Amino acid sequence: MILEARDISKSFRGLKAVANASFEIPEGGINALIGPNGAGKTTIFNMVAGVFAPDAGKIIFQGKEIQGLRPDQICAAGIGRTFQIVKPFAGLSVLENVMVGAFLREKHSSAAKDLSLQILRKLKLDSKAGQPASSLTLPDRKRLEVARALATRPKLLLLDEVMAGLRPTETDQMVEVFRDLNRSDGTTILLIEHVMRAVMALAQHIGVLHHGEVIARGTPQEIVRHPAVLECYLGEETEV
Amino acid sequence: MKKEFIYPGILGILLVALPAFAGNYALSVATLILYFAYTGQAWNVMMGFAGQLSLGHALYVGVGGYAAGAIFYHWGIGPWAGLWVAMALCVALGLLIGFLAFRFGISGVYFALLTIAFAEFTRIGFDHLDWIGGPGGMFLKVAQRDTWDLANFRGPPLMYYYTILFLTISALLLCFFLLKSKAGYYWQAIRENEEAAQALGINTFRWKMLAVALSSAMTSISGVFYAFYYNNLFPEQVFSMNRSIELILGPVIGGVGTLFGPILGAVVLTALSDGLTELLAALGWEIPGIKQVFYGVVLLLVIMFLPNGIWPAISRRLRL
């Protein structure tokens, strides 16, 4: 297991956002955490990424407890993340954006530049390397988020609603990008996602959150037939 | 790539040769321009690169000047030793402000207010320090003006001119290499979006502290220069809010975060405002405060028409 959460909980002023959630992410796979609005997906994401610490429970990454570490320490440990609302360094060029990430593992500008160009090629952004990041379209900005995170050479990539706001064809292109990354580099991916189309196409393992609890786990085929999942997404079945 | 060096190179040679064909007045204006260029560059490291707005940079000029000045005044020890004391004091002050702000999440305008507060209470404190003259000021002995006494940094205007020219060029080169290094990228990332920067593994606290330390160290050198060039220091003057604003006008008008903005801004402000004053004086008009009016008008025009400063517009035109 590359990442394990054991009974993590988080409350905001008495509102229990996540209650005793546990899950494991096997190394090398593409995993997804889904759930209706307010289920606690983003809270779990933020606890793993170090934005805030869980009130209780442990988060274990590659055998080490990481709960309560700062975001930069989490990143240095090997977990890369993207932001749901993209946060490009608008005043810098696309290449420079990625180089900021690359400097985590590369000391010299030339090495950071080489690594960044390589990643930009992989994400098909190399033709736009010299443009200011502020000139990119939304799908390209989402790609840039991924490129920047990849430049820190993560073992685990956390994607926060990376498909949100994309058109179906753009979603399919992104799905292809992640499949490719996972296949070629063996990067473990954890998606937090709303868009079912993407989740079903990509994920090998899915966890379903509802009211802060993990109510179901399994493959996409198992999840779509799981009664508890159907209930929380579609409502209870009633006899007429 | 090469173009980047041609214009600054020509400018540098002209500046080195300047004393050969400039009179004393022109030399003193040039010294003043370079002083503002250097200090603006130091401020630019903090605001332009790392995005931390300091409106109290006069603090470092004042403390740096007073420290080296007092050591010379009381014990006759020249600025080469005093410089290190000045620098250490200023870095300590900068780090204290930085620690208070960055540890407790004070940012943006509130950070700027904190820097003003430190400059202001240092001004009031220095007014009550009799050891360095209190409100009556501290006067360094003006010795030989015609021989170069490098050990005590006393000499003709030419010596000061070359010193500040050397400092300005060094600061420019330092910033040039910093911007191309990891530090430059990290600072700019923090400036653009701190949350995203942290998510990419940047210890934002440490890098912001580093920017403050470097900026305050560089500014302390301008303080030492100021003290030994003007030979007098008054708390009401050196620590005043006006001074802090005057220091940052150059980079703001020239272009915040650019390498040549602080230099260009200093040229525009100092040369034109002194030129204007001279011109008016030649016409027989002595208008007190015309300099401030001129600053205001230039700032207004730049904000209206070139919000990124003059240098970005020029470099686009020159295709640098």
Key phrases:
heterodimer, A: 240 residues, alpha/beta, Rossmann fold, 2 domains, 6-stranded mixed beta sheet, 4-stranded antiparallel beta sheet, 9 helices, globular, B: 320 residues, mainly alpha, two-stranded antiparallel ribbon, 14 helices
Structural topology:
The complex is a heterodimer of chains A (about 240) and B (about 325).
Chain A lengths: L2 E10 L2 E11 L4 E5 L6 H9 L6 E6 L2 E2 L5 H7 L1 E3 L12 H9 L6 H14 L15 H14 L4 E5 L7 H18 L2 E5 L3 H7 L2 E6 L2 E6 L1 H6 L1 H8 L6
Parallel strand pairs in A: 3-8, 3-9, 6-7, 7-8
Antiparallel strand pairs in A: 1-2, 1-4, 4-5, 9-10
Helix pairs in contact in A: 3-4, 3-5, 4-5, 6-7
Chain B lengths: L2 H19 L2 H26 L8 H18 L3 H25 L5 H19 L10 E2 L17 H23 L2 H11 L1 H6 L4 H27 L1 E2 L1 H4 L2 H14 L6 H22 L7 H16 L4 H9 L2
Antiparallel strand pairs in B: 1-2
Distance between the termini of chain B: 8 Å
Per DSSP E runs of 2 or more residues, the count of β-strands of chain B stands at 2
Order of helices and strands of chain B: HHHHHEHHHHEHHHHH
Shape label of chain A: globular
Residue share in helix of chain A:
25-40%
Q: Report the C-alpha radius of gyration of chain A, rounded.
A: 18 Å
Say how many strands of chain A there are: 10
Stated plainly, the CATH topology of the largest domain in chain A is called Rossmann fold
